[in-house]
Design a protein that fits this description.
Shape: elongated
Structural class: alpha+beta
Helix content: 10-25%
Order of helices and strands: EHHEEEHEEHEEHEEEEEEHEEH
Number of helices: 7
Number of strands: 16
Largest sheet: 10 strands, mixed
Strand content: 25-35%
CATH topology of the largest domain: Pseudouridine synthase
CATH architecture of the largest domain: 2-Layer Sandwich
Length: 301
């Protein structure tokens, strides 16, 4: 016996295969693709393609049992398991939270703690056809502002704005040594996925960081960074490449001076863009510095 369901507004425009992988995470990808290919998955009663775009109100049939939504008891347990998030801004479109250092954005195991796990628990999220999604990839030990899309349309619009570099991402970092007052780092970066390490490489992806020194603190500098591009580990690798590694960064610096890299996603600035709800246009959201960086904030000029 299979299952049939209506396409919601959150899934309008999504690909068939991606929706199925979201809703039936326990079904292997090979099984999903074979069912689509053989016509066992049907859209409005007809055979479809993996890359077919869905429209709100259509009916999708799959040859698997209907997946049970999260029970009220499971939701209560999840809400007790995780502490509440530090909300910086929230509406029906998105949720911006201040991620603490040490917390993953996505869980690394089923039921594991993460920013997304805590968000789903706090929201009491029951649906399996759409899940709120974090739109930034902060490292575990980087703190600061993270956008969580609360609807499918929001996720698509925000992801496109991020891809086009229209949402500005400003970071604060405490670095070794005295930096120049202003600077631009234009160094391509290449990631070694196996080692989870990024290196400057002329054959790598374009990566641009703008920075300015905000304050001096003995042998360290507090700098503000504007990530023009958003490559993995970009801020840390770029700062290390100019001789000013982030304090506490054991991977790209000495690891001395702090228990974690003192890097914080300080501000998100939204464009005055017609694709955004009016109240978000031009909005700036600040994330207060964590305790291990506040002493440097007091020195800021």
């Amino acid at each position: 016996m299979g299952a049939e369901f209506k396409i919601s507004a959150d899934n309008d425009g999504r690909r068939v295969d991606r929706l199925l992988r979201t809703k039936w995470r326990e079904v292997p990808l090979g099984v999903i693709m074979r069912a689509i290919r053989t016509g066992d998955v049907r859209l409005d009663g007809r055979k479809t393609r993996p890359d077919a775009r869905l429209a709100e109100g259509q009916t999708l049939y799959v040859p698997w049992e209907r997946r049970e939504e999260a029970s009220a008891e499971k939701l209560r347990k999840a809400q007790k398991k995780f502490p509440p998030l530090d909300t910086l801004y929230k509406d029906d479109f998105l949720w911006i939270v201040n991620k603490p250092a040490g917390l993953l954005v996505q869980p690394d195991e089923k039921g594991g703690d993460s920013l997304v796990s805590r968000a789903l628990a706090e929201l009491g999220w029951e649906r399996s056809d759409y899940r709120p999604a974090a739109l930034q990839r902060l490292d575990r030990n980087t703190s600061g502002a993270v956008i969580i899309a609360l609807a499918g349309a929001a996720q698509r619009r925000l992801a496109e704005l991020i891809r086009k570099r229209k949402i500005k991402k400003v970071y604060h970092a405490v670095v070794e040594g005295l930096t120049e007052e202003l600077g631009r780092i234009d160094v391509p970066l290449k990631k070694d996925a196996a080692a989870n390490r990024v290196s400057p490489d002329k054959e790598g992806q374009e990566a641009i960081t703008l920075y300015r020194r905000l304050a001096e603190y003995e042998t360290k500098s507090l700098v503000e960074l504007l990530l023009v591009t958003g490559r993995p580990h970009q801020a840390r690798v770029h700062l290390a490449s100019i001789g000013h590694p982030v304090v506490g960064d054991s991977k790209y610096g000495s690891g001395r001076g702090a228990r974690r890299p003192l890097l914080h996603a300080r501000e998100l600035i939204f464009p005055d863009d017609a694709d955004l709800p009016e109240k978000l246009r031009g909005l700036s959201v600040l994330a207060p510095l964590p305790e291990d960086m506040k002493e440097y904030e007091r020195e800021e000029k």
